[in-house]
Amino acid sequence: AGLGRTAFLHGIIISLLLSHTPEEIELYLCGQRRSEFSRYSEIPYCQISSDPAEELELLEDLQAEVDRRYTALFESRCRTIYDFNRRAGLMKHLIVIIEEYSNLAAHWKKRTASLVTNLAEMSSACGIHVIVCSEKSVYFRDIRNSFPSRVCLRTDSIADSYVMIDRKGAEKLG
Questions:
Q1: DSSP annotation of 123
Q2: How many CB atoms lie within 10 A of CB 113?
Q3: Cα–Cα nearest to 25, from 2, 54, 46, 6
Q4: In angstroms, rounded to a whole number, what is the distance separating the alpha carbons of residues 49 and 55?
Q5: Contact 101, 116 (CB under 8 A)
Q6: Helices (DSSP H) in the chain: which residue ranges?
Q7: pLDDT digits (tens, 9 = 90+) for 119-147
Q8: Which of 7, 12, 29, 152 could form a disulfide with 37 if both were Cys (CB 3.0 to 4.6 A apart)?
Q9: CA-to-CA distance for 148 and 26, rounded, in angstroms?
Q10: How far apart are the first and last CA of the chain?
């Protein structure tokens, strides 16, 4: 029996697909178990990766996209993507879902942590949204404070619960 992470992610993905058009969003699904996201492979605005090197490259490209988007926002005198889309044109929301952060961090811990931290802190105003999942709290500890909100499913221990949500209790979730 799993912790419900896969069902949780599928719920988010399906909700995004049903509530947004291809002109509004692009999804980037990153996960070692390619089969988890295979049902979305026919959707043209869904890119799926199971290669950590490709995923690192995606994060680097997204960091460059954040810079490009902030320049566009500044030049059009807009504060957010919503202002920009009302006044200047259409800028798609880019949603990145990393199914298991520790797979990336195991290869390039500092570089991955730096990119994910920067994206989490800087990208939502310009329409880039990052969802990161991790079973291994040791890797998540480095990036957790950069996320404005966190969802915690059942953890293995009280210590993991403290890492994820700063309190005990997540180890008791059903």
A1: S
A2: 19
A3: 46
A4: 7
A5: yes
A6: 5-19, 52-75, 81-87, 101-107, 109-122, 137-140, 158-165
A7: 988 888 899 999 988 776 655 666 766 77
A8: 29
A9: 22
A10: 11
